[in-house]
């Protein structure tokens, strides 16, 4: 199931947060007001986001009680499990695991060298890469580590689709180019560099420094 392009990226991010909230929600139903109190989102914005999901995924929601006779009122609420399933389907998550890799085994990348990092998420780390051969040989991981020179054949062999980029900023574009050339279609960029990629490759920028600047 492919993602619905018509749903804005900012809405998708809120839905991912809502998905995590629902997984830990103990009650059968949840209201837009309760979601607003927990997340700080505007109540009308929440209802608009859910309306977008209904509009663009109506073919998937047919007969789904989450939206049946729904007036979006505080007293009505949404069934937790139905809403959770709706969000999962609407955002296009696959039932099978998606293979990923880590590119850059510095301190940040090394902190991710554990399959438990993605346990239960639908993503599986299949490989780690670094240009420093000594680093590859010294570090220990629950999945194989390779020199960056072996990236192309490993990514193809393991059917790796996504990558987490954690190299130094000065090396980011070169490593990004290698990943794209090897067939990766999405990159989580944890560097401070602005990356240039083809239109068919998605980038999610998660710079810790930039995030700190925003919240300060």
Walk me through the structure:
The protein is of the alpha/beta class. The chain contains ten helices and eight strands. It has helices spanning 9-23, 32-39, 43-56, 58-61, 80-90, 107-110, 133-138, 151-157, 172-182, 208-215, and strands spanning 29-30, 78-79, 98-103, 123-130, 145-147, 160-165, 186-189, 202-205. The strands form two sheets. The chain has a six-stranded parallel β-sheet. Strands 1-2 form a two-stranded antiparallel ribbon. It is elongated. It starts with 8 loop residues before the first helix and ends with a helix. The model is unreliable at 1-5 and 63-74 (pLDDT under 50).
Strand runs, count:
8
- Percent range of helical residues: 40-55%
Distance between the termini: 38 Å
Proportion of residues in extended strands: 15-25%
What does the average pLDDT come to?
83
Quick one: biggest sheet?
6 strands, parallel
Q: Order of strands across the widest beta sheet?
A: 5-4-3-6-7-8
Which segments are poorly predicted (pLDDT under 50) over 5 or more consecutive residues? Answer: 1-5, 63-74
SSE pattern = HEHHHEHEHEHEHEHEEH
Instruction: Give the helix/strand class.
Output: alpha/beta
Radius of gyration over all CA atoms, rounded: 20 Å
Shape: elongated
Number of DSSP helices? 10
